[in-house]
Inverse folding.
């Protein structure tokens, strides 16, 4: 259990903490950086997302190696498949974020359009991460380790944060539409 226990810790750190904080940076209601410039918020978002991706890649590597050591099949559960897809998607999303830092790389796209696509695809990736976490909470390991009311409280965390993030993204769209 020693090596395995790093997997849920790193994945929860990546998707429940770092990625959530990276997205909340742009919220005028909840961000600790709300008084900072947009440039500072973008840099903080970039750093947190990169740290989230590194934690996710490390968590994926650890579980893959642990399954190899124990002779178990890889990516055969819904949690495993969704988790792999989520980490790959997060990598692609981070690469897409580079386009916002250097929009001239995309000559036929406006910066505004790139931001909308990045935010929308980021929301999809975040929801994938929440789904993968929730599927992990349905695993035999988690349901034997966390029982009763604690299991329901743990399950509420990604559910509630995903609702907060979806609300934030939809509010950003509404604000952008009103200001145009």
């Amino acid at each position: 259990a020693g090596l395995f226990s790093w997997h849920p810790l790193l994945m929860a750190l990546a998707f429940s903490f770092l990625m959530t904080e990276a997205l909340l940076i742009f919220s005028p209601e909840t961000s600790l950086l709300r008084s900072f410039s947009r440039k500072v918020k973008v840099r903080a978002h970039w750093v947190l997302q990169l740290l989230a991706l590194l934690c996710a890649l490390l968590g994926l590597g650890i579980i893959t190696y642990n399954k190899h050591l124990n002779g178990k099949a890889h990516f055969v559960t819904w949690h495993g498949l969704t988790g792999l897809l989520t980490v790959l998607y997060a990598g692609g999303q981070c690469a897409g974020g580079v386009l916002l830092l250097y929009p001239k790389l995309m000559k036929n796209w406006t910066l505004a359009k790139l931001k909308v696509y990045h935010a929308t695809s980021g929301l999809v990736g975040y929801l994938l991460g929440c789904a993968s976490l929730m599927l992990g909470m349905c695993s035999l390991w988690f349901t034997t380790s966390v029982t009763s009311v604690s299991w329901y409280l743990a399950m509420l965390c990604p559910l509630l944060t995903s609702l907060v993030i979806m609300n934030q993204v939809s509010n950003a769209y509404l604000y952008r539409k009103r200001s145009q």
Summary: The first helix runs from residue 6 to 24.
